[in-house]
Amino acid sequence: MPVRTGVLTSKRVLPMHDDDIANIMRALGHPVRLEILRILATQQQGQCCCADVTDSLTLAQSTVSQHIKVLHDAGLIERKPHGTRNRYCIRHDRLAELNLAFGGLLTGLAPVAANTETELA
Amino acid sequence: MPVRTGVLTSKRVLPMHDDDIANIMRALGHPVRLEILRILATQQQGQCCCADVTDSLTLAQSTVSQHIKVLHDAGLIERKPHGTRNRYCIRHDRLAELNLAFGGLLTGLAPVAANTETELA
DNA sequence: CCGATTGATCGGTGGATTGCGATGGAAGAT
DNA sequence: ATCTTCCATCGCAATCCACCGATCAATCGG
Protein backbone atom coordinates (compact mmCIF):
# COMPACT_ATOMS: atom_id res chain seq x y z
CA MET A 1 0.00 0.00 0.00
CA PRO A 2 1.68 3.18 -1.10
CA VAL A 3 1.32 5.87 1.44
CA ARG A 4 1.38 9.09 -0.56
CA THR A 5 1.49 11.37 2.41
CA GLY A 6 1.77 15.02 1.78
CA VAL A 7 1.19 16.40 -1.66
CA LEU A 8 4.52 17.62 -2.90
CA THR A 9 4.33 19.55 -6.09
CA SER A 10 7.32 21.15 -7.73
CA LYS A 11 8.07 23.58 -4.97
CA ARG A 12 4.85 24.17 -3.13
CA VAL A 13 4.04 21.82 -0.30
CA LEU A 14 0.39 21.42 0.41
CA PRO A 15 -0.55 21.00 4.04
CA MET A 16 -0.74 17.54 5.47
CA HIS A 17 -3.99 16.16 6.70
CA ASP A 18 -4.56 14.14 9.82
CA ASP A 19 -4.25 10.89 7.93
CA ASP A 20 -0.90 11.90 6.52
CA ILE A 21 0.42 13.06 9.85
CA ALA A 22 -0.86 9.97 11.60
CA ASN A 23 0.81 7.76 9.01
CA ILE A 24 4.18 9.35 9.51
CA MET A 25 3.75 9.43 13.28
CA ARG A 26 3.10 5.72 13.25
CA ALA A 27 6.19 5.16 11.15
CA LEU A 28 8.15 7.10 13.77
CA GLY A 29 6.38 5.28 16.56
CA HIS A 30 8.91 2.52 16.96
CA PRO A 31 12.28 2.86 18.67
CA VAL A 32 14.04 0.68 16.14
CA ARG A 33 12.86 2.93 13.34
CA LEU A 34 14.10 6.00 15.16
CA GLU A 35 17.40 4.24 15.63
CA ILE A 36 17.58 3.40 11.95
CA LEU A 37 17.06 7.05 11.10
CA ARG A 38 19.84 7.98 13.47
CA ILE A 39 22.13 5.40 11.92
CA LEU A 40 21.44 6.82 8.48
CA ALA A 41 22.06 10.33 9.75
CA THR A 42 25.45 9.46 11.21
CA GLN A 43 26.79 7.87 8.07
CA GLN A 44 29.47 9.58 6.16
CA GLN A 45 27.47 10.79 3.22
CA GLY A 46 24.24 10.45 5.10
CA GLN A 47 23.55 7.16 3.43
CA CYS A 48 24.32 3.53 3.90
CA CYS A 49 23.06 0.15 2.86
CA CYS A 50 20.80 -2.29 4.64
CA ALA A 51 23.66 -4.50 5.76
CA ASP A 52 25.28 -1.62 7.61
CA VAL A 53 22.07 -0.93 9.45
CA THR A 54 21.67 -4.60 10.25
CA ASP A 55 25.19 -4.72 11.65
CA SER A 56 24.37 -1.83 13.96
CA LEU A 57 21.30 -3.54 15.35
CA THR A 58 20.61 -6.87 16.98
CA LEU A 59 17.85 -7.84 14.62
CA ALA A 60 17.59 -10.18 11.69
CA GLN A 61 18.19 -8.78 8.25
CA SER A 62 14.63 -9.43 7.21
CA THR A 63 13.33 -7.50 10.19
CA VAL A 64 15.55 -4.55 9.46
CA SER A 65 14.51 -4.62 5.85
CA GLN A 66 10.90 -4.56 6.95
CA HIS A 67 11.45 -1.52 9.16
CA ILE A 68 13.24 0.17 6.31
CA LYS A 69 10.26 -0.55 4.13
CA VAL A 70 7.95 1.12 6.64
CA LEU A 71 10.14 4.20 6.68
CA HIS A 72 10.33 4.15 2.92
CA ASP A 73 6.57 3.78 2.51
CA ALA A 74 6.11 6.73 4.83
CA GLY A 75 8.37 8.71 2.53
CA LEU A 76 10.94 9.33 5.23
CA ILE A 77 13.86 7.69 3.49
CA GLU A 78 14.93 7.26 -0.09
CA ARG A 79 16.29 4.22 -1.84
CA LYS A 80 19.03 4.47 -4.41
CA PRO A 81 20.04 1.22 -6.05
CA HIS A 82 23.78 1.25 -6.33
CA GLY A 83 25.40 -1.80 -7.77
CA THR A 84 24.53 -4.84 -5.76
CA ARG A 85 23.47 -2.75 -2.82
CA ASN A 86 20.82 -0.24 -2.02
CA ARG A 87 21.78 3.00 -0.50
CA TYR A 88 19.32 4.58 1.84
CA CYS A 89 19.27 8.16 2.92
CA ILE A 90 16.97 10.39 4.90
CA ARG A 91 14.61 12.58 2.96
CA HIS A 92 15.24 15.84 4.71
CA ASP A 93 12.67 17.57 2.60
CA ARG A 94 10.01 15.32 4.01
CA LEU A 95 11.35 15.85 7.49
CA ALA A 96 11.06 19.57 7.01
CA GLU A 97 7.56 19.10 5.70
CA LEU A 98 6.69 17.01 8.71
CA ASN A 99 8.19 19.63 10.97
CA LEU A 100 5.88 22.20 9.45
CA ALA A 101 2.87 19.96 9.82
CA PHE A 102 3.79 19.15 13.38
CA GLY A 103 4.18 22.79 14.25
CA GLY A 104 0.84 23.48 12.69
CA LEU A 105 -0.69 20.68 14.66
CA LEU A 106 0.62 22.04 17.94
CA THR A 107 -0.46 25.54 17.00
CA GLY A 108 -3.92 24.26 16.26
CA LEU A 109 -4.00 22.65 19.67
CA ALA A 110 -2.86 25.75 21.48
CA PRO A 111 -5.48 27.29 23.74
CA VAL A 112 -5.45 30.70 22.08
CA ALA A 113 -6.09 29.47 18.59
CA ALA A 114 -9.24 27.66 19.60
CA ASN A 115 -11.50 29.82 17.49
CA THR A 116 -11.53 31.97 14.36
CA GLU A 117 -9.39 30.25 11.79
CA THR A 118 -10.08 32.40 8.79
CA GLU A 119 -6.70 33.84 7.94
CA LEU A 120 -5.49 30.63 6.38
CA ALA A 121 -6.29 29.70 2.85
CA MET B 1 19.45 29.11 17.01
CA PRO B 2 20.77 26.56 19.49
CA VAL B 3 18.66 23.61 20.35
CA ARG B 4 18.17 22.11 23.77
CA THR B 5 16.83 18.65 23.54
CA GLY B 6 14.45 17.89 26.30
CA VAL B 7 15.85 19.56 29.38
CA LEU B 8 14.17 22.60 30.85
CA THR B 9 16.36 24.46 33.26
CA SER B 10 13.64 25.75 35.52
CA LYS B 11 11.32 22.81 35.98
CA ARG B 12 13.85 20.08 35.38
CA VAL B 13 12.16 17.99 32.76
CA LEU B 14 14.02 14.83 32.07
CA PRO B 15 15.04 14.28 28.47
CA MET B 16 12.94 11.97 26.40
CA HIS B 17 14.47 8.80 25.08
CA ASP B 18 13.58 7.03 21.90
CA ASP B 19 11.14 4.83 23.73
CA ASP B 20 9.30 7.82 25.13
CA ILE B 21 9.21 9.60 21.81
CA ALA B 22 8.10 6.46 20.03
CA ASN B 23 5.35 5.97 22.60
CA ILE B 24 3.97 9.44 22.08
CA MET B 25 4.36 9.18 18.33
CA ARG B 26 2.32 6.02 18.36
CA ALA B 27 -0.32 7.74 20.47
CA LEU B 28 -0.45 10.50 17.87
CA GLY B 29 -0.34 7.99 15.06
CA HIS B 30 -4.07 7.62 14.66
CA PRO B 31 -6.35 10.15 12.96
CA VAL B 32 -9.11 9.65 15.50
CA ARG B 33 -6.75 10.55 18.30
CA LEU B 34 -5.61 13.67 16.51
CA GLU B 35 -9.25 14.54 16.04
CA ILE B 36 -9.94 14.03 19.73
CA LEU B 37 -7.14 16.42 20.59
CA ARG B 38 -8.61 18.96 18.22
CA ILE B 39 -12.03 18.53 19.77
CA LEU B 40 -10.57 19.12 23.20
CA ALA B 41 -8.73 22.18 21.94
CA THR B 42 -11.84 23.75 20.47
CA GLN B 43 -13.90 23.43 23.61
CA GLN B 44 -14.79 26.52 25.50
CA GLN B 45 -12.53 26.06 28.48
CA GLY B 46 -10.30 23.69 26.60
CA GLN B 47 -11.93 20.75 28.27
CA CYS B 48 -14.92 18.54 27.79
CA CYS B 49 -16.22 15.17 28.82
CA CYS B 50 -16.11 11.84 27.03
CA ALA B 51 -19.71 12.09 25.90
CA ASP B 52 -19.04 15.32 24.07
CA VAL B 53 -16.17 13.71 22.22
CA THR B 54 -18.30 10.70 21.41
CA ASP B 55 -21.02 12.94 20.01
CA SER B 56 -18.49 14.56 17.71
CA LEU B 57 -17.35 11.25 16.32
CA THR B 58 -19.02 8.28 14.70
CA LEU B 59 -17.57 5.73 17.05
CA ALA B 60 -18.92 3.79 19.97
CA GLN B 61 -18.42 5.25 23.42
CA SER B 62 -16.17 2.38 24.44
CA THR B 63 -13.94 3.01 21.45
CA VAL B 64 -13.68 6.69 22.20
CA SER B 65 -12.93 5.92 25.81
CA GLN B 66 -10.19 3.62 24.67
CA HIS B 67 -8.61 6.26 22.47
CA ILE B 68 -8.83 8.70 25.34
CA LYS B 69 -7.06 6.18 27.50
CA VAL B 70 -4.24 5.92 24.99
CA LEU B 71 -3.83 9.67 24.97
CA HIS B 72 -4.00 9.74 28.73
CA ASP B 73 -1.45 6.96 29.11
CA ALA B 74 0.84 8.89 26.80
CA GLY B 75 0.48 11.85 29.12
CA LEU B 76 -1.02 14.03 26.45
CA ILE B 77 -4.31 14.74 28.19
CA GLU B 78 -5.41 15.12 31.77
CA ARG B 79 -8.45 13.74 33.52
CA LYS B 80 -10.35 15.73 36.09
CA PRO B 81 -13.29 13.96 37.70
CA HIS B 82 -16.10 16.44 37.98
CA GLY B 83 -19.32 15.18 39.39
CA THR B 84 -20.68 12.34 37.39
CA ARG B 85 -18.47 13.25 34.48
CA ASN B 86 -14.81 13.40 33.69
CA ARG B 87 -13.38 16.48 32.17
CA TYR B 88 -10.47 16.06 29.83
CA CYS B 89 -8.05 18.70 28.76
CA ILE B 90 -4.86 18.84 26.81
CA ARG B 91 -1.62 18.89 28.75
CA HIS B 92 0.08 21.75 27.02
CA ASP B 93 3.15 21.31 29.13
CA ARG B 94 3.64 17.86 27.72
CA LEU B 95 3.01 19.14 24.25
CA ALA B 96 5.72 21.71 24.73
CA GLU B 97 8.00 19.01 26.02
CA LEU B 98 7.22 16.87 23.03
CA ASN B 99 7.89 19.80 20.77
CA LEU B 100 11.34 20.11 22.25
CA ALA B 101 12.02 16.43 21.91
CA PHE B 102 10.77 16.44 18.36
CA GLY B 103 12.93 19.39 17.46
CA GLY B 104 15.87 17.63 19.02
CA LEU B 105 15.10 14.52 17.05
CA LEU B 106 15.04 16.40 13.78
CA THR B 107 18.19 18.25 14.68
CA GLY B 108 19.88 14.97 15.43
CA LEU B 109 18.84 13.71 12.03
CA ALA B 110 20.08 16.78 10.21
CA PRO B 111 23.20 16.50 8.07
CA VAL B 112 26.23 16.30 10.29
CA ALA B 113 27.60 19.60 11.56
CA ALA B 114 26.88 21.39 8.31
CA ASN B 115 23.99 23.71 7.78
CA THR B 116 23.52 23.14 4.02
CA GLU B 117 19.78 23.23 4.39
CA THR B 118 19.21 25.01 1.14
CA GLU B 119 16.59 23.87 -1.28
CA LEU B 120 17.17 20.84 -3.38
CA ALA B 121 15.24 22.59 -6.17
C1' DC C 1 -34.64 4.62 48.39
C1' DC C 2 -34.78 4.15 43.12
C1' DG C 3 -33.80 5.26 38.25
C1' DA C 4 -30.86 7.66 34.97
C1' DT C 5 -26.40 9.10 33.20
C1' DT C 6 -21.52 8.88 32.71
C1' DG C 7 -17.65 6.44 31.40
C1' DA C 8 -14.03 2.93 32.54
C1' DT C 9 -13.35 -1.67 31.75
C1' DC C 10 -14.10 -6.60 30.14
C1' DG C 11 -14.56 -10.07 26.49
C1' DG C 12 -14.50 -11.06 21.75
C1' DT C 13 -13.45 -10.57 16.73
C1' DG C 14 -10.76 -9.32 12.92
C1' DG C 15 -6.96 -7.13 11.05
C1' DA C 16 -2.31 -5.09 11.45
C1' DT C 17 2.42 -5.29 13.32
C1' DT C 18 6.67 -7.42 14.78
C1' DG C 19 9.74 -10.83 14.82
C1' DC C 20 12.10 -14.82 12.54
C1' DG C 21 14.11 -18.15 8.98
C1' DA C 22 13.92 -19.41 4.16
C1' DT C 23 13.74 -18.25 -0.70
C1' DG C 24 15.16 -16.20 -4.82
C1' DG C 25 16.52 -12.51 -8.04
C1' DA C 26 20.08 -9.24 -9.23
C1' DA C 27 24.68 -7.65 -9.62
C1' DG C 28 29.67 -8.11 -8.95
C1' DA C 29 33.57 -11.35 -8.52
C1' DT C 30 36.13 -15.46 -10.01
C1' DA D 1 29.30 -19.99 -16.21
C1' DT D 2 29.67 -20.23 -11.34
C1' DC D 3 30.09 -18.43 -6.88
C1' DT D 4 29.17 -14.94 -3.58
C1' DT D 5 26.94 -10.99 -1.53
C1' DC D 6 23.07 -8.11 -0.84
C1' DC D 7 18.38 -7.65 0.41
C1' DA D 8 13.37 -7.61 -0.85
C1' DT D 9 9.95 -10.65 -0.11
C1' DC D 10 7.31 -14.76 1.47
C1' DG D 11 5.44 -17.73 5.07
C1' DC D 12 4.63 -18.31 9.70
C1' DA D 13 3.84 -17.42 14.86
C1' DA D 14 3.07 -14.25 18.39
C1' DT D 15 1.49 -10.14 19.72
C1' DC D 16 -0.79 -5.86 19.45
C1' DC D 17 -4.49 -2.71 17.92
C1' DA D 18 -9.22 -1.02 16.66
C1' DC D 19 -13.70 -1.61 17.22
C1' DC D 20 -17.81 -3.23 19.24
C1' DG D 21 -21.53 -4.57 22.75
C1' DA D 22 -22.16 -5.54 27.51
C1' DT D 23 -21.35 -4.59 32.14
C1' DC D 24 -20.78 -2.13 36.44
C1' DA D 25 -19.23 1.47 39.92
C1' DA D 26 -20.10 6.11 40.85
C1' DT D 27 -22.83 10.14 40.94
C1' DC D 28 -26.87 12.93 40.58
C1' DG D 29 -31.97 13.82 40.58
C1' DG D 30 -36.14 12.57 42.37
Automatic annotation (TrEMBL), chains A, B:
Top-rank lineage group of the source organism: Bacteria
Keyword Transmembrane helix: no
Keyword Membrane listed: no
The name this protein goes by in its record: Metalloregulator ArsR/SmtB family transcription factor
GO molecular function, one term: DNA-binding transcription factor activity
PANTHER family in UniProt: REGULATORY PROTEIN ARSR (PTHR33154:SF15), TRANSCRIPTIONAL REGULATOR, ARSR FAMILY (PTHR33154)
All copies of domain HTH arsR-type, residue ranges: 13-110
CDD domains: HTH_ARSR
Keywords assigned: DNA-binding, Transcription, Transcription regulation
Pfam family membership, one: HTH_5
